[in-house]
Queue: 3 jobs
Job 1
Amino acid sequence: MNGGALPTPEGGPDHDAAVARMFGRIASWYDFLNRLLSLGIDQRWRRELALSARPGDGLALDLAAGTLDVALALRRVAPEATVAAMDFCPPMLAHGLPKLKGENRRRILPVAADARKLPLRDGAAACITMAFGIRNITPRGAAFAEMLRVLRPGGRACILEFGSGRERIWGGVYNAYLNHLLPLVGRAFSRDGAYGYLAESIRAFPTAEELAAEMRAAGFARVWYKKLTSGIVCLHVGEKAA
């Protein structure tokens, strides 16, 4: 695969298009590299995300849905739920379609959409999930505002994201992995600089407390977070006022 222009973590006028192109280029490797680079723990993280969302039997909205792993996790924990799986990179959704079997073909609805302009009415979603996508959205406040708009009163937005590279984790081992091993392994398999961008965007990302403050400022009535795997990832939860 060829490289091409990569986005910068701070955004810019071409940021959105660059992110979409980048994920389109790595779509065929995405699941494999997720399992490899996380040693398979990423599936456990996604299950924790799905459980925390409490989807029930309503409409669950999964943003930055990628290859549909979170949508499937939501259906496993809530078999009566319908999942709108939205991503602004159609090739990622397309690579997830073969995973949809049986009832999931009817209950999981892949849709190309921008998290800042959601094609849903106010209060339509019982819950919202997003795994490893909020780093790629600028400005984040626009996405938080849309989450609040489409959430029903009392609903939860649950965001799974890597811990900030500005915090030392495992005595700095995680930081060394982030800075050196992650881009090297990603490039070896995908032949793309996307995993260099991934490491850079994690280094620049807010700390867990800073992101929680952003969610409070956006209007979530109750906000908290939980660090998973010693803080390698954080699960952020924001509830809309009832």
Job 2
Amino acid sequence: MKNTFFAMMSRMKYIKRWALMRNSVRENISEHSLEVAIIAHALAVIGNLRLGKNYNPEHIAMLGVYHDCTEIITGDMPAPVKYDNEIINKAYKEIEKEAALRIINMLPGDMQEYYMCYFGGEKDQEALKLVKAADKLSAVIKCIEEEKAGNREFICAKNSLMDSIKKMQCKEADIFCDEFLGAYGKTLDEL
């Protein structure tokens, strides 16, 4: 059925993240995607102002908004399952492509091409790298919040995520970590 795209997007709030972990506070992909969009936008601004890049921060933010929306159909596959086995990872990527196509087909025909970049059609690898870095930073922030709540369940995940961010060699993410990440450990009064 056409014209159900936006109603489907509103269902992001029903998809829970971190399914294999004991959570102090539940997180859904709608909340996560907003945070990724905010961070991705910030990374693009950092790149433009500090590193002489020519990013489109608003476009990159929108890539962040839609980066996990196929999970409305697929659910959130836990990282240890998704990335542990090459066969599973390859199969899951195919499932994600099918889910993206299904979602795109929920738009009227004249809008589909415009939205395609958010569903696997983006060619700008630097923009995609910023969104990937923002996704990992959002996950680190979740780990920090869980640690603050006394939940030790996320300590290994945080360390692993920080290592993967360093390996990305994304200067924008490194700057964000140096200048902004520490504030996420503060209380409201300390902010």
Job 3
Amino acid sequence: MKKTKLMVSLILVSSLLFTACGTKDNSENNANSGASKDKGSVYVYNWGEYIDPDVITQFEKETGIEVIYNDFQTNEEMYPLIEKKAVQYDVVCPSDYMIQKMAEHDLLAEINYDNVPNIKNIDPVYLKKAEIFDPGNKYSVPYCWGTVGILYNKTMVDEPIDSWEAIFDEKYNDNILMMDSIRDAYMISLISLGYDQNTTDEAQIEEATEKLKKQHPLVQAYVVDQVRDKMINEEAALGVIYSGEAIYTQRENEDLVYVVPKEGSNVWIDGWVIPKNCQNKENAEAWINFMCREDIALKNFEYITYSTPNKAARELIEDEDIRNSTIAFPGDETLNRCKSFTYLGDEVDALYMNKWLEVKN
């Protein structure tokens, strides 16, 4: 998942502009898509590089619905646009804790599951996990999920890495790529100190801040997506990365190893939601239903390499190594030491943001 990083400047006006994907005249409707036969549009807001472009074309061809598609880099970039109703998106893909925040701030419409019959393909395990931030699955449908861990180059470190303490180790000075994300950075620091990643305790947050400040001089760069290319090109020895990105990097550089540290980590779920002020709700539900179709979920998984919660799609994966990958689909031993983020409230969010500013400055 392209996850959350701090946005300290005003959102650029250009982020309000849409990139239209074109209108298709073919209104043929796939029997399994559940899409409306009426032509129209659907305004989609998703993470960057988080869908196979051919899927958009296929959706338009099968439904006759034009897709106006735009992307964002962080939850914090996306949220103000939805909150202020700056743009009327029909379907958006936030992360777990942000879905909870949007629901609690009355920004989401309930999904009519009569229009999303392909929900049957989503593994009940992930629907249950999603209830942590969306009780009753009223507002969201899981799209992708994964873990946060350390990617390291086995030729550039002294020994196998298994602990978060490695990215605080002075011997890796200027060889560390740290996550440029408030929640992820604090998750690492808090867990390494033995605290809950969802803590609201100000003293614990302050202690985690001091640890991050001490780490700051050792960090080569604070990155999100860039960690992928930097690690492939051996510009750093180790970095924090999302599991889906790790799968891609290992295809490009066989010396890279991904590990979920022994102390524990974050397991996240991104899901499709419908903003309350959307103008094309049925088309948004047609989009969500299409994304839940097994062949479409498989196509997206193969393109973006982030874990799919779609059980039917996983059964279609032909590559046995990928189907059984412990990075894409970790077992209980790993997941039992991972935990999801929850929304902590606006005041605590502001506290984390202010402390993160102290770290970065």
